[in-house]
Amino acid sequence: MPVARPESSGARIIAHVDMDCFYVQVEQRKQPQLRGLPTAVVQYNEWKGGALLAVSYEARKYGVKRFMRGDEAKEVFPQIELVQVPVSRGKADLSTYRNAGSEVVSVLSRKGRCERASIDEVYLDLTNAAEAMLAEIPPESLEAVDEEALKSHVLGLESKDGNDAKATVKEWLCRGDADHRDKLLACGVLIVAELRMQVLKETEFTCSAGIAHNKMLAKLASGMNKPAQQTVVPFSSVKGLLDSLPVKKMKQLGGKLGTSLQCELGVNTVGDLLKFSEDKLQEGYGVNTGTWLWNIARGISGEEVQARLLPKSHGSGKSFPGPCALKTVASVQHWLNQLCEELSERLCSDLEQNKRIARTLTLHASAFKSSDSDSFRKFPSKSCPLRYGTAKMQEDAFNLFQAGLREYLGLYGVKTQGSDYNGWRVIALSVSASKIVPILSGTCSIMKYFKEDTCNSSLKQYPNNFIQDAEPSSPSGSESYSKLNSTELQHEFAGEAACVQRVMDGLGQQEVKSNTWNEQDPSCSTEKHTPQSFSRGTPQLLLSGTESHSSLDQNMPQREVHWEDSSMEHIKLNSKQHDQKRSALKDKGTLSSLNFFKSRNLSGSSREQEHVETTQNTETSLALELNLEQRLQGGLIAQTATNSSGCSSDQVQQRSVAWDYKIEDIDPSVIDELPKEIQDEIRAWLRPSKRPNIVKRGSTIADYFSPSKSRLR
DNA sequence: CTTGGACAGGTGT
DNA sequence: TACACCTGT
After folding, report:
1. Contact between residue A114 and residue A122 where contact means Cβ atoms under 8 Å apart
2. Would you say which domain of life the source belongs to (predicted)?
């Protein structure tokens, strides 16, 4: 439920930037011959041509809509270009879009506080920049205004007869007698126009934007004129806007809450909400939501732009609709392994690029009983402490699944034995990693040590010297049988950490972890599937790790590991591209979005696909390092949590307190495995009286991108 | 918009 | 905290 936040005192300038049909643009950049053509991005195309995820504006003109199937789109407009979402490990892989989103963020975060709201949306708090501009070079002092800014839409501003729209906008932007808030908005308009041009130059993506005094209004405005345009909401036009705005269009009211307003209160537009007192709304919807509703009816929303450039969690999931539903343990385990592989890879990238680790692994699943269409669909989600290393994640995910399964089936009194789930079908699986925290600064030296020592391969291969005992029998076999609930997993984790050698063993296992499985048809084109195609192989339920190494492993697609898209690299990359394009475009003056590509073509420059190969950590070294890191931080954070009696302001203090108490929780054997200089460093941390290196890192990404800090000692 | 899927974020308990 | 549920693209 939404919660009301108090509106801050002074006027803020907030922008919402929304990429235009983002996936399409990413694919068009990759294949420039698609530019300007009616294009859509589909994922999976075996069944009815796949689902459309994004549709170019050219294609929308011909009636192609999101949520159509590929076949449907072809019927509506046969010439449409359909591009498929990349697939790895048999599932959609959105990483190219995530990375492209990071490129955009790296540009947009330059002028103010920046919040990455989704893969293709960003909020900016430009209050300071706007105030600075107003103080130094107020719009009224300008003789020429940026072309892109002149194309802005000003809500509530009618174009005067005989005057073209740009002249009217210019007059509004440069009014000397405007309200102070409108003057700040005018500055916001200029800043956002420039940022959008910068995004275009550096990423080749167009975007639309809304500029207003709060997030809610900015978000509303960004969608009003697309693509490649921006809309500003002057304070004076807020009431007019909301009066006629259907409640369902408002963020947070698109679902059940909005329906309830319509049905229970007869509210059709946001303006209709004005008729209800705050008390009345609180009566119906609770204190928080009631106040929130009362506020938004008046265009009030105090929600701050959070300084966050990175996601708070990572997830990997897949659904198995209709005939694709999973029936066997082996198939569930196979797909969990795939999902964990992807998740593990993304976590490793996050660690290297952003120096963060995730602390919680969560498994979600959905299931139904084939004989009963009305049966439960929800499977309890389960979580446990996250252990780095693909094999460990796979093991833990499977144990979580089994824990959930047991609870789930227990409610039905169903015995869990035999080769399948007694008529139950798994229709969705996902694993996610959350509670992502920055690693301690001192660990950078450890990172550096392992990087220098072991990171000589960009392929994910395990150096022989680290795989000392890759025996096939695994702790996930009979041992895991007894670890069926997350509580036990936690105890195992917190109490008796594995030694370094064991980490290595664990990593070795992932090569033999994959089981015999079936139902692996990634295309889900299973209308033709015969029942026996699902019933080959009958692994024992709850015995996960003991099957012999399946020869199918060799038939699996090669893992594609694209490392070139780190945010950090993009910052370097972008500045390089920026320079190149600056020179390519120099003397052309300000370019509007519409002219941009034309100008580029005229200048003959085409985007070079620049790939930055970065030296990568092997997973082995990461796991070793994280084993240490987690054992250090594990005790630390647990203690911090129990100690935090109300005051959470000074984490540094809390951490040092935590150290005092939890030193004994750190397994000394880990430290002994490390080289002498690292040992010394860690022991220095362990002496709170000296504790020279316990420094809380800043929480913004800028801190991690700072070379002096990320490479320190 | 009912019949998507793969995410991500948030709140309530 | 763990988990259910809601909302968005």
Report:
1. yes
2. Eukaryota
Distance A363 CA to C2 C1' (A): 12
CA of A378 to C1' of C3 (A): 12
- B6 closest protein residue (CA to C1'): A317
| Model pLDDT for residues A517-548, shown as the tens digit of each residue | 334 433 333 333 322 222 222 222 222 322 22
Mean pLDDT of chain A: 68
For residue A118, the SS3 value is strand
Which positions on chain C have an atom < 7 Å from some protein CB?
1-9
3-state class (DSSP) for residue A698: coil
Which bases of strand B have any atom within 7 Å of the beta carbon of a protein residue?
1, 4-12
Nucleotide nearest to A22 (CA to C1'): C9
| A357 vs A630: CA distance, rounded Å | 9
Which residues in 466-505 of chain A line strand B, with CB less than 7 A from it? Answer: none
- Of residues A245, A301, A254, the one with CA closest to residue A273: A245
Q: For A485-525, write each residue's pLDDT tens digit.
A: 333 323 333 322 322 222 233 333 333 333 333 344 333 33
Minimum-distance nucleotide, CA of A91 to C1': B6
Contact of A659 with A688, CB cutoff 8 Å:
yes
The 3-state secondary structure of A175-222 reads: CCCCCHHHHHHHHHHHHHHHHHHHHHHHHCCCEEEEEECCHHHHHHHH
Which residues have a Cβ under 8 Å from the Cβ of A208 and sit 6 or more positions away? A17, A18, A20, A222, A223, A225, A226, A227, A228, A229, A230, A231
Over the stretch A332-368, which tens digit does the pLDDT of each residue have? 999 999 999 999 999 999 999 899 999 999 999 988 8
Burial A543-563 (b: 16+ CB within 10 A, else e): ebbbbeebeeeeeeeeeeeeb
Active site residues of A: 121
Closest listed residue to residue A328, CA positions, set A555, A91, A537: A537
> What string of DSSP letters covers A330-377?
HHHHHHHHHHHHHHHHHHHHHHHHH-EEEEEEEEEEEEEETTBTTS--
Q: Can you give the distance from the CA of residue A508 to the C1' of nucleotide C6 in angstroms?
A: 41
Q: What token pair was written down for A622?
A: 């990461």
Round and report the angstrom distance from CA (A381) to C1' (C2).
9
CA of A634 to C1' of B10 (A): 26
pLDDT in tens, A383-408: 999 999 999 999 999 999 988 887 77
- Total residues belonging to chain A: 713
> What DSSP assignment string belongs to A13-60?
-EEEEEETTHHHHHHHHHSGGGTTS-EEEEE--TTTT-EEEEE-HHHH
Q: Chain A, 216-255: which CBs lie within 7 Å of strand B?
A: 248
The partner residues of A356 in beta bridges, in order of sequence, read A438
- pTM, entire model: 0.70
Q: What is the pLDDT of residue A259?
A: 87
Distance CA A121, CA A16 (A): 7
| Smallest CA–C1' distance to B1, residue | A67
Q: Residue A411 to residues A156, A404, A407, A408, A539: CA-CA distances in angstroms?
A: 58, 11, 6, 6, 24
Q: How far apart are the first and last CA of chain A?
A: 46
- Helix (H) / strand (E) containing A671: helix A668-672
Determine the nucleotide nearest to A637 by Cα–C1' distance: C1
Is the separation of the CB atoms in A233 and A211 below 8 Å? yes
- Cα distances from A183 to residues A92, A100, A235, A416, A527, in angstroms, run 46, 33, 11, 68, 61
Cα-Cα-Cα-Cα torsion A187, A189, A195, A200, nearest 10 degrees, comes to -150
| Cβ of A428 near strand B (distance < 7 A) | yes
In this structure, what token pair is assigned to residue A240? 């007019």
Measured at the alpha carbon of residue A171, what is the angle toward residues A165 and A176, in degrees to the nearest 5?
A: 165
C-alpha separations of A400 from A365, A483, A546 in Å: 10, 9, 18
